[in-house]
């Protein structure tokens, strides 16, 4: 009976992620509540995700990143790029992409799209290098490079992916390390950046009605003292991640200390910290941790894994498995957000790996990376919707740019993952 309850909750989670009738965190917390209500889990176990070290790490890093987004660095970058465009259009695009890549390691994608748009909406609509083109070109580069370096929020990517399936596969050997995302994605990211650097003219050019850009605002200046505190805390937290192997479990405590330092120094208010610490993403991760554990212990994981093995055949090639998951991930992200897709497919991939004697790391990396690279439709993520909205693009007219982009992403990502983490040990 427990297996059927967990299977029903998994279906419920998929449907709710797909329709997005309520925030993702509400969906996963509903699943946790139902696991406790139906006695599938004890109450303490059903809500154990809220105290999990991964949840705490991610929540605190979101808060530190939020504080960093309030500094004056953004406006300085904007002023510098304005001078560059006057000298060379190609250099301007190259610098735009480089700035996007750097910001992509430090902040959330939605915030970055909004920040970049602050400058790009002011470009001449009649110029080849216009706002409608550059906003989407920069977004496509951001989708490739976002959080790939093990710094800032990027250092949490492996922990977040692990949270999706650690309840199914308990072998530490098959857990991801902070550098794994970078190792698998660096070549696809370079190829996609080169593509964007020379194919941006395939993006439709049209005027932008800046009055419709409601969510893009200037960064409000904060006191110099607060900015200094935030910068120091941010650097110290980054150093904690860089030397994570030496500090061990303290790596999970350092972001907590950073948040406390920001609050006690009044660089951010307690209300701001509480809002960031209890964001929907944090709730979702906490709930998915518990659901992943339930899937593994109830037998649902084995059921799903064996079913997928039948579909793929008795012994599918490593590359074929990775390509199939890359394509399925991008297709699913067309209809539901990248976060939801990764949360749903990762436990399924882990179950398949467990049933087929496979190494899950390559598949899990392909799912979590490809889900962010799905840029063809605005429904893929909040930042994707924002890029479409600000640039006022129609998905069908963008296909001549997005389809080659996705083809490069799928093929290169699958090949590199197969080389780095072959499915069959």
How would you sum up this structure, described in words?
The protein is mainly alpha-helical and 425 residues long. It has a domain at 2-52 and 279-420. It is 70% helix and 0% strand. It contains 21 helices and no strands. It has helices spanning 2-19, 24-37, 43-46, 53-68, 73-85, 89-103, 109-120, 131-145, 157-165, 180-199, 224-242, 244-247, 254-264, 270-277, 280-298, 300-312, 318-335, 338-356, 361-373, 382-391, 395-420. Helix 16 crosses helix 18. The radius of gyration is 21 Å and the shape is globular.
The gist of it:
70% of the residues lie in helices and 0% in strands.
Spans of at least 5 consecutive residues whose pLDDT stays below 50 are 211-218
The count of DSSP E runs of length 2 or more, i.e. the number of strands, is 0
Q: Compute the CA-based radius of gyration.
A: 21 Å
| Helix and strand element order | HHHHHHHHHHHHHHHHHHHHH
Structural class: mainly alpha
Helical residue percent band: 55-70%
Distance between the termini: 34 Å
Q: Strand-residue fraction?
A: under 5%
Q: Give me the number of helical elements.
A: 21
Report on the biggest sheet: none
Q: In one word, what is the shape?
A: globular
Mean pLDDT: 84
Characteristic key phrases:
21 helices; globular; about 425 residues; about 70% helix; about 0% strand; mainly alpha; single chain
Topology (SSEs and partners):
Blueprint: H1 2-19, H2 24-37, H3 43-46, H4 53-68, H5 73-85, H6 89-103, H7 109-120, H8 131-145, H9 157-165, H10 180-199, H11 224-242, H12 244-247, H13 254-264, H14 270-277, H15 280-298, H16 300-312, H17 318-335, H18 338-356, H19 361-373, H20 382-391, H21 395-420
Helix pairs in contact: 1-2, 1-15, 2-15, 4-11, 4-13, 4-14, 4-15, 5-6, 6-8, 7-8, 7-20, 8-10, 8-20, 9-15, 10-19, 10-21, 11-13, 16-18, 17-18, 17-19, 17-21, 18-19, 19-21
């Amino acid at each position: 009976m427990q297996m059927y309850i967990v299977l029903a909750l998994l279906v419920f989670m998929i449907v709710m992620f797909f329709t997005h009738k309520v925030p993702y965190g509400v969906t996963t917390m509903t699943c946790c509540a139902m696991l406790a209500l139906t006695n599938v889990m004890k109450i303490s176990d059903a809500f154990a995700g809220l105290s999990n070290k991964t949840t705490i790490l991610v929540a605190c890093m979101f808060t530190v990143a939020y504080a960093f987004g309030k500094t004056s660095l953004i406006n300085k970058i904007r002023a510098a790029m304005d001078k560059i465009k006057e000298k060379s259009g190609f250099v301007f695009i190259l610098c735009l992409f480089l700035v996007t890549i750097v910001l992509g390691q430090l902040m959330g994608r939605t915030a970055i799209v909004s920040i970049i748009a602050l400058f790009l909406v002011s470009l001449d609509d009649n110029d080849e290098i216009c706002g409608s083109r550059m906003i989407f070109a920069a977004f496509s580069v951001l989708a490739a490079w976002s959080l790939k370096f093990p710094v800032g929020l990027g250092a949490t990517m492996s922990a977040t992916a692990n949270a999706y399936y650690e309840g199914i596969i308990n072998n530490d050997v098959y857990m991801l390390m902070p550098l794994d995302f970078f190792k698998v994605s660096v070549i696809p990211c370079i190829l996609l950046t080169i593509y964007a650097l020379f194919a941006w003219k395939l993006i439709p050019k049209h005027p932008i009605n800046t009055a419709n850009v409601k969510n893009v605002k200037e960064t409000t200046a904060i006191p110099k003292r607060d900015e200094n505190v935030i910068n120091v805390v941010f650097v110290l937290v980054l150093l904690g991640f860089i030397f994570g192997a030496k500090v061990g479990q303290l790596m999970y405590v350092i972001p907590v200390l950073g948040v406390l330092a920001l609050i006690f120094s009044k660089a951010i208010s307690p209300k701001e910290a509480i809002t960031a610490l209890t964001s929907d993403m944090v709730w979702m991760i906490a709930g998915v941790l518990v659901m992943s554990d339930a899937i593994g212990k109830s037998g649902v994981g084995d059921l799903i894994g064996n079913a997928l093995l039948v579909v793929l055949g008795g012994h599918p090639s490593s590359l074929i498995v990775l390509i199939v998951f890359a394509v399925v991930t991008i297709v699913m992200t067309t209809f539901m957000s990248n976060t939801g897709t990764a949360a749903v497919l990762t436990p399924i991939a882990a179950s398949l790996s467990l049933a087929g004697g496979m190494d899950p790391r390559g598949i899990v990396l392909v799912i979590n990376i490809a889900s962010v690279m799905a840029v063809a439709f605005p429904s893929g993520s909040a930042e994707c919707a924002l890029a479409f909205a600000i640039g006022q693009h129609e998905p069908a007219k963008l296909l001549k740019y997005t389809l080659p982009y996705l083809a490069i992403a799928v093929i290169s990502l699958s090949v590199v993952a197969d080389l780095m983490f072959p499915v069959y040990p």
